[in-house]
Amino acid sequence: MASNPRSVVVLCVDDDEAIRCLLESVLERFGYSALVACNGHEALQLTEQHRIDAVILDYSMPDMNSGEVALEMKRLRPDVPIILISGLMDIPSGTLMHVDAFVAKGEGLRRLLPVLARLLQVPRKKQAMVRRFRRFPAQVSLAVTVGRAGELARFQGVSTDFGEGGIGGIVDGDLKPGEHVLLTLSDSRLETQLEPHAQVCYRKDNKYGFAFINASPIEQADVRQLCEKLASG
Predict the structure, then answer these.
(1) Contact 67/57 with Cβ under 8 angstroms?
(2) Cα separations (Å) of 109 from 56, 114, 174?
(3) How far, in Å, are 2, 7, 104, 110, 168 from residue 28 at the CA level?
(4) What angle do CA 214, 95, 37 make, to 5 degrees?
(5) Does residue 156 contact residue 172 with C-beta atoms inside 8 Å?
(6) What pTM did the predictor assign?
(7) DSSP β-ladder status, 33-37 and 9-13
(8) What pLDDT is attached to residue 30?
(9) Beta bridge partners of 102
(10) pLDDT one-digit tens code per residue, 60-75
(11) CATH match for 136-231 among 1.10.260.40, 2.40.10.220, 3.30.870.10, 3.40.190.10
């Protein structure tokens, strides 16, 4: 008799009991198994004792620096992706370099679940269950502007997929998860360039995921119009 496939185990690390309970409940609803830890030391102990497939790590730890926790987790489980979550936006680069993605707590589960699915390489059908907006394959000229030490750096690229909530693309520059950027999208299907503000959500080699932030009603309408054009072919 064939054995049932094991569920994916996600370790949730947060000192707020309400958030731990929420994450545990939602993850289990979407078919994951959840382990919870209230501090860095407990998280590392669970990482050593259990098979972990992914980690959701709060930035503010009561006992350890989250960068130190992430670094030690990578030593113990180098192939396990870590998603850093925080209510703060100005995360030190020394912390971000040890994680695979950053999600702001203000964005809620609508961002966290798709990022988790993407990092775990969940089959496309399951990803569709947790996406808020449909993504369309699309090649659109892309430029990324980011502030660095008081100066602006600009990188060129091309999109791979597009949706109302964000965009995926290939960029010829070095960006870090959590950074805020300005995107410039140019395409013959657009009446004008789109310049949405976004946050870098994940990186894999030169492939990036960007989530739109603080989009104005006009920008939202322009993005929706492009998505409709992409959907109609």
Answers:
(1) no
(2) 12, 8, 27
(3) 23, 10, 21, 16, 27
(4) 95
(5) yes
(6) 0.54
(7) parallel
(8) 86
(9) 84
(10) 888 888 889 998 998 8
(11) 2.40.10.220
